[in-house]
Specification:
CATH architecture of one domain in chain B: 3-Layer(bba) Sandwich
Largest sheet of chain A: none
Strand content of chain A: under 5%
Number of helices of chain A: 2
Number of strands of chain A: 0
Structural class of chain A: mainly alpha
Oligomer: heterodimer
Helix content of chain B: 10-25%
Radius of gyration of chain B: 22 Å
């Protein structure tokens, strides 16, 4: 098995996806959503 | 009066100690035995390892916490368990070897009514010749290792600043390792730091793992809903690596390491070697090697421990083929089947089998991730076991013991991909349950409502906030118990 340099089958993010990953207003919204999802999962586990 | 003795003060042991004391007032006694008087929030070691955080930020001195909580602390290493007592003394006890500055090496006996084994793993660097900080590679398993790794990493960065190309090899140092998630986080942080130091073009970054494919994480991978599709964590992880120009080698067993060179075998049975300038390779884990003896002094280690040194609990350890593995095989109360007052939590309990389908190379070498049981599940198990023991001590035996099977627990994994509030990101992943249950969720083994993955700054903020929350909790500051594991 050789070193896998670039697997072109892997989906790559578009420039807008990359921009939104660090775009603060969008990430603030994501922050709330991810926390809610995690709390839901944590409640199920406790 | 009951005495609860907890061996180990890691994530599982420290959590168990705090909850045991919270539930058990004086005159009940809670005693923690640990080789170090320092608690390490291990998930943040990856930031120490790239120089983005200091050691002081990931540790908590235990003595002041235990003094405040009225928990007795013994700095030592448990070496023997005598569950039936010794000779004329018929009460159970552990033999502890002092590791503190005073009377180092001296042995003492500590009697117990209930024992929680939370000793964590032995970092088995010896399994791969040349592996580890005493050999030719770095580690982030302890804060001291991570600090040393940071020094070596920053030295490589200095070389790159002088114009020299460097190869950085990161991953697992043996075919039977666990904690692939930590190596995954570390490689993404290394790549981020290389860009921050403006030397990315001088670095070749290679990830090597015993996982059969990227994104397996020792849990057989997972599936998430994204963009109207159900996608695998393999695609998610590969996408992150391709985007960052990180090369990867999967299905690999590192056979030995020499100065600047790693030798490894892959699942196809081929042998390879790879030259490196910096390497951080995680070791495989075993139990710490405690012995157990009966009252007459006969060795009964096999009654308490599996051959790998992890403690037997209420799991189904019968040998089965992968097709016959069931969620019900996993332990629920973490109680030893022979001695009902002994429990094992965190990495110290013996899992019934792996989670990822076991694989061997064409030459017959096992190359397969061991099941992870660190972080969130480890702390939940510690709390549940401590509360169950408290119920037993307080005579609340009419209550059914609480259970914490990894086939019924979820886990949140926030994998850092860069430590910066604004440009840093993290992959936030949750899964429910940790051990896939194909009877409840026939299609993917997990509930897709609770299994998701996302990457962005929000993940990094969550990871950083969790760091401060868990350090706060470890210090047992006001309302610590309200912070969920």
């Amino acid at each position: 098995m050789s070193v896998n340099k670039t697997d072109q089958q892997a989906p790559l993010p578009t420039p807008s996806t990359r921009f939104f990953r660090t775009f603060v207003p969008w990430q603030l919204l994501k922050f709330i959503l991810i926390n809610l999802k995690m709390i839901r999962m944590i409640r199920r586990s406790h | 009066m009951a005495r609860v003795v907890i061996l180990g003060a890691g994530i599982a042991g420290h959590t168990a100690a705090l909850f045991a004391r919270r539930r058990l007032p004086q005159p009940h006694q809670v005693i923690v035995v640990s080789p170090k008087d320092i608690y390490n929030w291990i998930p943040s070691n990856i930031w120490v390892g790239v120089g983005a955080m200091s050691c002081n930020e990931v540790v908590v001195p235990l003595r002041p916490v235990y003094a405040k909580m009225d928990i007795d602390f013994v700095q030592g290493r448990a070496v023997e368990i005598h569950p039936e007592g010794t000779g004329a003394v018929g009460t159970p006890r552990v033999i502890v070897e002092n590791t503190g500055e005073e009377a180092t090496g001296q042995r003492r006996e500590i009697g117990y009514d209930y024992l929680i084994n939370a000793t964590g793993p032995k970092l088995n660097f010896a399994a791969t010749p040349g592996l580890g900080p005493d050999g030719f590679t770095q580690s982030v398993c302890t804060y001291e290792h991570a600090d040393k790794a940071a020094g070596a990493f920053l030295a490589a960065v200095e070389e790159m600043k002088k114009g020299r190309t460097q190869t950085l090899l990161i991953g697992t140092g043996h075919g039977m390792c666990t904690c692939e998630g930590a190596a995954f986080e570390f490689v993404l942080n290394v790549e981020f730091e290389l860009r921050r130091h403006q030397v990315r073009d001088k670095a070749r970054v290679v990830f090597i793992s015993n996982e059969p494919e990227l994104g397996d994480f020792g849990v057989g991978g997972m599936h998430f809903k994204r963009g109207g599709y159900v996608v695998s964590s393999k695609l998610f992880a590969e996408s992150l690596f391709v985007e960052r120009g990180v090369e990867w080698i999967t299905g690999a067993h590192v056979q030995k390491v020499e100065a600047g060179k790693a030798f490894y075998e892959t699942l196809d049975g081929e042998s390879h070697e790879l030259a490196f300038d910096f390497a951080m390779l995680l070791p495989p884990f075993t139990g710490i090697g405690m012995k157990a003896l009966d009252r007459a002094g006969q060795d009964i280690t096999a009654d308490l421990f599996m051959p790998n040194g992890f403690m037997k609990v209420d799991a189904d350890y019968a040998k089965k083929d992968y097709a016959q593995w069931k969620a019900a095989d996993w332990p629920k109360t973490y109680r030893n089947p022979k001695y009902a007052n002994i429990f094992a939590v965190g990495i110290a309990f013996a899992p019934p089998h792996a989670i990822t389908r076991p694989r061997v190379s064409a030459k017959g070498t096992p190359i397969s991730p061991a099941p992870p049981r660190t972080g969130m599940p480890s702390a939940i198990i510690g709390r549940v076991v401590a509360n169950n023991i408290a119920d037993l001590v307080l005579g609340r035996t009419q209550r059914q013991p609480k259970t914490a099977s990894m086939a019924a627990l979820g886990a949140a994994c926030v994998a850092s991909a860069g430590a910066n509030w604004w440009s840093g990101t993290a992959a936030s992943m949750t899964m429910y349950p940790i051990v896939p249950d194909f009877e409840r969720f026939p299609e993917y083994g997990r509930d897709l409502k609770f299994t998701f993955g996302d990457i962005g700054s929000a993940g990094h903020w969550i990871k950083k906030i969790l760091h401060y929350m868990f350090i706060y909790k470890a210090k047992a500051l006001p309302m610590w118990w309200m912070i969920p594991e």
